[in-house]
Amino acid sequence: MLKLRLFTLPTCAKCPEAKKMAERLARERPDIRVEVLDMSDSENYITALQLQIASTPSFVLEDTPIYVGDLPLYEDLRRKIAEYEKKRG
What we know:
This protein has three helices and four strands. By secondary structure, the protein is an alpha+beta fold. It has one domain (2-88): Glutaredoxin. Helix 1 links the parallel strand 1 and strand 2 (32-38).
């Protein structure tokens, strides 16, 4: 099972749409565990910094940031995940 984390902030204008995207992905792909993490929580903030993430919204697949401070198109997000799965085998 893959893990996709979305790092957000309450003040982020793009984060509500990113959350909808993550929720849609979770519905369509039950084999992917989706977590939405608020970076205003100190533990999540530290995790984000360890992944070199300082802006939101940011999507992380396993431990690899795939979109940082950007809201991708939904199909682009799905394509990145498919590419990752293909490489992983």
